[in-house]
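Two quick folds needed for the group meeting slides. Do the first one here.
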Amino acid sequence: MEQKEQLEKFRDLIEDVRVCMMITKSADGELAARPMSTSKVEEDGSIWFFTNEYSGKVEEINREHEVFLSYASPAKNTYLSFPGKATISNDRAKMEELWNPTMKAWFPEGLEDPKIALINVHPGDAEYWESNSSKVVFAFNVLKSLVTGKQYDEGEHGKLSV
């Protein structure tokens, strides 16, 4: 796949799932994971998230910029995971561009909320798994594999250079 096609597939996989688990490392080296809703995936593959500037993840990102993101949609049999470099931004123009009224659930004061900030992740190479099968087709193919003794074909699996 050409670079442009890889970036397109990367963006499509993220936009299809939208919510990921963002994993950071605490000061004592422990891994911490939390769900994060993707606000935007840029043309270059970088990803934006809204966050509380005073949260533990911001402290962890400011200390160590390495994060790991994992997107999963078991219902669609779509999975994507990758490391990245995260930074915290207080860019008001970017916040205005990305703002969505549903964000008021986390930031009741809207863009005037004093704790609002952005996380920007520049991804490393990604790995994905994708199957277009429904749960019924998946179950049938697993059963078929067990009966025939042939290994189950999991669908498409690959790496994306982002």
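Then this one, please, same format:
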Amino acid sequence: MKKLMLTLLLCFSHCASGDGLPDLGDVSQAAINPIQERQIGQQSMMQIRASKQYLNDAEINEYLNQTGNKLVEFCNEPSLEFEFFAVNDYSVNAFALPGGFVGVNAGLLLITESESELASVLAHEIAHVTQHHLARMVAAQQGDTMASMAAIAVAILAARSNAQASQAAIAGVQAHAMQKQLDFTREHEQEADRIGFETLLKAGFNTHAMPEFLERLQHATRLIDGNAPNYLRTHPVTSDRIADIENRVSKQPYRLLPDSLDFQLVRTKLIGSQKTAQDAISYFSDALTMHKHGNQIAQQYGLVTALLRNKETERAKEELSVLLKQTTTQNDAMLETLTGKVKHAAGDPDTLDFYHTAVQKFPRHLALIYDYADLLLKSNQAQTAVKLLIEQITLHPTDVTLYDLQAHCYSQLNKPLEQHQAQAYSYAWQGNLHGAMQQLELAKRAGGSFYQLSIIESDLRELRDMMQASAKK
């Protein structure tokens, strides 16, 4: 845990010069260094995680990271750490933060017609990060602390998604006023296209998807006058830019690649979440009967999910049986997670055994981990759950749900120090430093060993330093 808090402190550090402020110097000569970029991105992510913008769905975010990391492997900075995440916004947009954080709106996931189209957008955003485009623009604002630059970065994103709401998004930052200064230049976009294209090609995706996606968005814009998707406004598309992409693509053979099952399941999950449970049941039932709306397996998955939401457990079991017969050759973590949810809802006696096997089969699928830990808690097996969660926190040290579950486990085990300590880390990773300090004070009052109390005191000092750093933005 101590290592975690030191990692968290790095996000708030000043990288200070003699006067206690970061010495950015002449940004035309010296850009923000990679450590500072990561700090800016991480602080921005804390604000995003704490907001309603963050789509806290482990399966959607895991899919984005799997797809994104296939591309990162072939980008021009493969050693750079990336994190891909979904945004709970059904407008069409995607964006990059300094330090390797890439957000994808739910609306963009839904409008893409193939996995290669989605990959083309991710490759473009990855190039913005590796070429340090946004970092240079943030540095050019001459912010006086890492915290202030993180606020600027989030304000830019707010302005790009909703110009009217941007000023309320980050207090004290004139995001709307900066918008024209901070838009990507034509050169930035062309560079991201060129490098993104090379990444897409090396990763084995269909490069023809890149111009196809942009042209479809442009066509939709012409049909709905004055209502351009956010993606076109934040990544301006010119005829020269499309011509350049098409010229590069024309030299490559057309590759008709099948989409992964997870691409279809993630999109189906988003479609269902937009509807009431009853409307989703009707939608997917109609699609299956009429053989429309695309992939039949995904539609069956959507139907089972909707039935669970509507508490129609027996019918969900029947439809799940149909789904699993259709996917006998599939070894998919999302299907395993859905199976566990149905078993749990139905009260099947072998549910715990099922989850025990499932997490061994898919040891990094967080949705399974969450459900298994919760079920262990309900079965009064908190000690087993704690062991599982400690292992997962090592792999996912910024995951607040894991800390929340851990706090519940320690509460059941009557370990107040550990309970409040885990809750403190959850709050800290969401940027709620005051709440984190309160939890650590409660942990200290609970009493513990000299070693435990020393860690808590050290964590409290670090949090106070973070509060001071944040106050200077």
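Slide caption for protein two: The first strand starts at residue 83 and ends at 87.
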